[in-house]
Amino acid sequence: MRFCRTFAALTSLLLAVALSAEAQAKPEVKVHWLKPDTARASVGTTWGTPWPQGAVQAQSEFTLSAESGSLPVQSWPLAYWPDGSVKWSGHAIAPLAVNTDSLTLAPGKGPQPEQALTVREDKNSIRVDTGAIQAVLSKSGTQLIQSISRQGRETLHNGHLIILAQNQAEPKVGEPLTVNAFNGQLNTVTLEQDGPLRAVIKVEGKHLGENGRAWIPFVVRLYFYAGDDSVRLVHSMIYDGDQNQDFIRGVGVRFNVPMDGPLHDRHVRFSGESNGLFAEGVRGITGLRRDPGEAVRQAQIDGRATPPLNQWAKSVSDRINVIPAFGDYTLTQLSADAFAIRKRTQPGLAWVDSAAGGRSSGLGYIGSPEGGVAFGIRDFWQSHPSQLDIRNAATDSAQVTLWFWSPESRAMDMRFYHDGMGLDTHEKQLDAMGVTYEDYEPGFADATGVARTSELRLWALPATPDRDTTVQMARTLAEPPQMVARPKDYKAAGVFGAALWSLPDRSTPAKAAIEDQLDFYLDHYLTQVEEHHWYGFWDYGDVMHSYDHDRHTWRYDVGGFAWANSELSPDIWLWYSFLRTGRADVFSMAEAMTRHTGEVDVYHLGRFEGLGSRHNVKHWGDSAKQLRISTPANRRFYYYLTADERVGDLMRATLGAERRLLDVPPLRKLNRPQPDFAGKPYSMMMGLGTDWNSVAAAWLTEWERTGEPEYKDKLLRAMRSIGEFKQGLLSSGTAYDPDTSRFYRVGEGVSGSHLAMVFGGVEINAELIQLLDVPEYEAAFIQYGRFFNASREEKADIIGQPYNRNLNLGQAHSRMTAYSAWKLDDKALANRAWGEFFDAKAGIKVYGAPYPSNTITPPAVLAPVTEARGVSTNAVSQFGLTAIQIMALISEQAPENIPERD
């Protein structure tokens, strides 16, 4: 066996050397638009690109080439290989002047931009000039954006954050309902990038009220690109109120727009569904009893300046002042399927219903032929209740508010959904889990510390855009241009545990059946999001845990069976699925999930900071606060693929989160005696499963991102200490010293938890072994893989003692058997792994035919739904990851056909 291990290691080394030599000979990556039909030419974009180890040196520049020649590109390192070479690089480009679907990225010196973005910073402000627009950003006070100008004309000013809060969840007869406003107070402003093609400014602060209360911390990043007339804002808010008395009524961004020209030349636009567009003049001149003239009417319809009044029909021009001007407009999207537009002439007078529809893409515009502002919220209908307001358009200064949470909706209610039902002891709570699967504990269903990130974009325009251009901007808002590499280039780079995934393979009937089933699950979950309306401000991006076939719905109201909250790694399943297929719809779903699970399901301040919440009816409702939910293992993919700074912050924030386990012991309800830490070299208990894997993911990611040795050394010390244990990763009763990053044995025996490796553990450990040479740790991981699904006799032989406990999730752990077989070059073990996979213990069998699904129609349900037997998010996520990984690791040993099973 030792020879096999040595041979496998030598083979891997030779393969790595060959890949590295090939990469060094001609390292280049083809990149393309994620969605080929994206309206991409109008805005800049950022993405991440992987490189094989040794291919690109740390200080390398990059060149980006199209068929027409080289393009300017701004580049920076995102991650490093252990040898110091670049593993991931970040890149930004200005709006493209060439229309191309494929570009080539390679090390080398590219051209400088003809007009670079410039940034000037002083003690009071940061000034950004993209060449198209000029922005002045404050460094203190409440003005996030002092002004944005174009061609010497101020287009908008006084951009600031606003929150409305009320003292009750809903009005009560006889009790006064009070609403207070809070404006964002800037505390810290950081210039993170300053060009030449991309500038990033990070703003942090809290919302301040007239009563002096400062709450709801925020982080806003503003993104500018050379030649781009838009600014992208990524807005994150953290809830830190009292959920029993602080009910947020509205969350938004507000600014003023100077208004020029006659009222009939001022224009309002709102996007609807698809290419739908609401377009009107503040003072309409069509449909009157008298006709001002075709040229006049057509100019207003087109958004152009109308001819002078002396060219109008006098029957209209002489009466222009008695035509009502509508100064206020509102677009509300209070559910996923209904928006409404209304207008009024001025406050204090009645609203007039103007239009309605299903799903607005969330773009608005106010301006005139002299200039104006287009504005919008990404995922507008998906993240309802949302709203766009235009006020005072008939005055010299219009006011625009983009509401991430509409003030016309119900107030934001962060309370738990039940009163505790008398579950006031751990014994009662554990007993209740037996029926609802909910791990409830008083005081733990707390929303203090959860966050939400939203994205918006502002365009400073020289004139009212025509209808086609407005529709294109709405498309850009809804689907921003995203550059990606080809699946084969991600694979060739060796990233994300290179051995664990491969490109789709349908070369045999068995493999084709597996690939078909993988595709079915991706399509099914995309369908489920739509059929069951998994949308909303706090919910969009997550999926449900388990299905109720009696009611024909997911168990949205049943304890621990409701929102999945990353249980058994659906995030990682989706990202590996994208890497190997390049599917844009899968990327979009994974992106939404990453945004959600990293913000809503994790605490960012307070007593649980750094921990996440187990699955529940309310995302933060479960009392199990865990590292396995906050782990960077779920978020590394999106960060490296997009270079997203907010997700980078979230991953870094988990460093040191393991210390929270001192205050929130994971096993506190089991009444297990705690060891005496006095005088010991350790200070806390920590298992070698989900907790250790989460800590390792945080350290690995920080080491990759910085190249600094501190976190590499922590990994090495921890891994070596685990490898010294006789039973390695199977050891029970392990303690940890956060100061030295070493583990110690406190108890005796062997531990084999079915959950230990299914929250990113397999994936993170495969990367650790790929990147760090710790033979004793590698042996421990291989031992774990051989042990888990082995027979009792084999288990006893592996660990040298009897082991009679039954372990669950056999199919999910067949990929660990496969990993061990791959490492040991053990064909018998590989055959065992395939048998475990097809046996589908606590998993899903491979059907080899269309998956058994059917459509349920009314009146059995409210609306038609698609059901698939055996589908739960746990099972599907682990089936997906296992199928992908076992196909990559031991593909050659796969049976030709699906084995017949009893």
Automatic annotation (TrEMBL):
Residue span(s) of domain PcRGLX/YetA-like central beta-sandwich: 118-474
Keywords recorded for this protein, A-Z: Signal
Residue stretches making up the PcRGLX/YetA-like N-terminal RIFT barrel domain: 28-106
Protein's UniProt keywords contain Signal: yes
The protein's name in its UniProt record: Tat pathway signal sequence domain protein
Domain PcRGLX/YetA-like C-terminal alpha/alpha toroid: start-end pairs: 480-894
Highest taxon, organism lineage: Bacteria
Keyword Signal recorded: yes
InterPro entries cross-referenced by the UniProt entry: PcRGLX/YetA-like, PcRGLX/YetA_2nd, PcRGLX/YetA_3rd, PcRGLX_1st
Organism for this UniProt entry: Gilvimarinus xylanilyticus
Signal peptide (from-to): 1-23
